[in-house]
């Protein structure tokens, strides 16, 4: 059920009062406490890919196929997890688009 206009205004007043009263708390509440930055996730994913490759090689050396399969699965899962939220774009920056529109910023 959507909020009424009165409720939206009251929430805006409360949030503005909170921001003016305690800006650090407001900034903390605006952030997702469990969010991990993309750079951190990418680094952890690369470490897990390396660990999966090591387990895969270990499985080949000791001739245990299930260990190699497990290493391969860890390696692929970690690679997917590391790059799933990366945004691949051909555009390098948004500055180029604003210069085409005539803005000199």
From TrEMBL:
Pfam family, one: DUF3040
Keyword entries, A-Z: Membrane, Transmembrane, Transmembrane helix
InterPro entries xref list: DUF3040
Transmembrane feature ranges: 45-61, 67-83
Name recorded for this polypeptide: DUF3040 family protein
